[in-house]
Amino acid sequence: MRIAREGYPIIAIPALVAVIALLLGWKLPAALFAIVTLAVAAFFRDPERISPLGSDLILAPADGRVMEMRPVEGVGADSGTRVSIFMSPLDVHVNRAPVSGTVKEIEYQKGCFMPAYKEDCSENNERNAVTLVATDGRPIKLVQIAGILARRIICRVKPGDTLEAGERFGIIMFGSRVDVYIPSGAEIVVGEGRRVTGGESVLARKSI
Fold first, then answer.
1. How is residue 174 annotated by DSSP?
2. What pLDDT, in 10s, does the model give residues 18-47?
3. Which residues contact 13 (CB under 8 A, 6 or more apart)?
């Protein structure tokens, strides 16, 4: 099982405690911390994905359930339809680029840690917004949102970096949400309540 690199320091803590407990002959605590180690390792799993081909496709940036689709009015990347994907602690939390393109802007904002399924967490929770300019010149905005358990958002890219559709760009630790702003005119092919797979499931098709 491939593990996201950010997970190794966290996995090492219960693993070390399990080893020490075993060396001391404390079998039950050792077994409990071994289970915790496996659970944490499972959270940080980072499976390989095969992304579908097509320059018109907008892929899911995260694993989880589509909890809301809402039209939003704005300028550029802030306009279109906001598709919100809720990730439970059991989902893969590695985030992936929905399209091929160049990172134009990254904007981090501190905030609170309300449950990620609440409607107003998009504006009030800690979040990190990544704006990509797709190869066709259209901007697409992604927002990594911390949840009630998530206390650390990791973004691996910086402005000027290029990403391929389905490529990893970050991770949110322990239960969270990702919003993706679908450009106006795109045909959305998912519905609320549907489960999606990051880097593989198609959310929408851009008009050519």
1. S
2. 999 999 999 999 999 999 999 989 889 999
3. none
